[in-house]
Design brief:
The complex is a heterodimer of chains A (204) and B (177).
Chain A lengths: L16 H10 L4 E2 L6 H9 L22 E5 L4 H13 L5 E5 L1 H5 L22 E3 L6 H16 L30 H15 L5
Parallel strand pairs in A: 1-2, 2-3, 3-4
Helix pairs in contact in A: 1-5, 2-5
Chain B lengths: L2 H12 L3 E5 L6 E4 L4 H10 L7 E10 L7 H4 L4 E9 L7 E8 L12 E3 L8 H11 L3 E3 L27 E2 L2 E2 L2
Parallel strand pairs in B: 2-5, 6-7
Antiparallel strand pairs in B: 1-2, 3-4, 4-5, 8-9
The chains are: A alpha/beta (204), B alpha/beta (177).
């Protein structure tokens, strides 16, 4: 804005609309209250005065998806809940962002192998923007994740009205295509057996 | 009153309904004929000598060795057990255990759940316990007021705590393994 700087009286700032909108957007990301398990405690701690997520303008936890920009999925997503997660995500207005908080939402965590009712990562359900690993992550880690979301907002190119914003979609999202070795139940059983054999301790 | 005396009262009262017992175990138990369960439980709750007013929990145990190499050493035939833990308020500290021994599938038809009469009419707490057991272990409780899945989704297939349960490949478009 160098050209226009100093040409106006005090109290005026020259900028472009894109920058201004992105600045407003990144400074008031309203998260949706989405505590599903123990990570929710850490998310609450992040909201409380000691860590104070309000410093980043993201302290207004909304109880409805229609007023939220950011979904912090904090905790184990089981398959019964996954339907609801997807539904709530669809109800959020664009542009919307998702933080996968904790090991369970990043990839199943401790439930990866025997969790018969746990989605192996919330990215199988909704598109995820930022992964925050940890079990549970420290509040600082969540704040870091939030700042990465803010980076993303700052980089948003054009000011869209009514159009979805072009957010780069991570690789493991959307509908699921199984790898070849898991394509049919028979193959999957064979694969599991193979894995089991491979996992056996070597005989002395 | 010791477990031995409780077992003696039940044997005197119901005779052939008691199919087995182990009073030396850590939790002394008797095994019952499932058909007589409601009768025995009503007696256990209402008899002034016994007064088991509280059903602590109902547990389902699936006895099945899935590894063919270990079957010979397993020491049991495949079956299902339902265990009832009882205790008393009138006589604090008194505990007793009932066991039902069931086939894994009714009539050996895989998919047909074994049936047990519900005790939800005797202890209200059994209502949800039986629903959980139905959900996860797959025991059908006849006469239950509202036997639906309690933890898993309504359209779930199978009973995950069975030893031979196969994990689903996909659920509502979500990859599961």
């Amino acid at each position: 804005m160098g050209l226009l700087e100093g040409h106006f009286e005090d109290g005026f700032v020259a900028t472009n609309l894109e920058y201004a909108v992105n600045w407003a957007r990144e400074s008031s990301l309203w998260p949706m209250t989405f505590g599903l398990a123990c990570c929710a405690i850490e998310m609450m701690a992040t909201g409380a005065p000691r860590f104070d997520i309000d410093r980043f303008g993201a302290g207004a936890f909304r109880a409805t998806p229609r007023q939220a920009d950011l979904m912090i999925v904090a905790g184990t997503v089981n398959l019964k809940m996954a339907d609801r997660v997807r539904r709530l995500y669809n109800q959020m207005p664009d542009p919307k962002f998702v933080i996968a908080m904790g090991a369970c939402t990043c990839g199943g965590g401790p439930y990866y192998k025997y969790g018969y009712n746990v989605a192996k990562g919330v990215d199988l359900v909704v598109p995820v923007d930022v992964y925050v690993p940890g079990c549970p992550p420290r509040p600082e880690a969540l704040l870091e994740g939030l700042m990465r979301i803010q980076d993303k907002v700052r980089k948003m190119k054009e000011y869209h009205k009514g159009q979805p914003v072009d957010v780069p979609i991570p690789a493991r999202t959307g509908s699921v295509r199984l790898p070849d070795e898991l394509a049919t139940p028979e193959k999957a059983a064979e694969f599991a057996l193979e894995n089991k054999e491979r996992g056996k301790p070597a005989k002395a | 009153m010791t477990p031995t005396e409780i077992a003696a009262i039940l044997e005197e009262q119901f005779g052939p309904a008691v199919t087995g017992k182990n009073l030396a175990a850590l939790d002394p138990f008797i095994a019952l004929d499932p058909a007589k369960l409601v009768e025995v439980c009503t007696f256990l709750r209402d008899d002034p000598r016994l007064r088991f007013e509280l059903l602590n929990d109902i547990t389902g145990v699936d006895y099945l060795e899935t590894d063919p190499k270990k079957v010979a050493k397993a020491g049991f035939d495949p079956h299902l057990e339902v265990v009832y833990h009882l205790s008393s308020f009138s006589y604090p500290g008194r505990r007793f255990t009932l066991k039902l021994i069931l086939p894994r599938w009714k009539g050996n038809q895989p998919g047909e759940l074994p049936e047990v009469p519900s005790v939800a009419g005797i202890w209200r707490t059994a209502d949800w316990h039986e629903r959980e057991l139905f959900d996860l272990v797959g025991v059908y409780f006849t006469g239950h007021p509202d036997l639906r899945r309690i933890l898993l989704a309504e359209d779930w297939v199978g009973h995950p705590l069975r030893k031979d349960y196969e994990y689903p490949l996909e659920y509502h478009g979500i990859r599961c393994r």
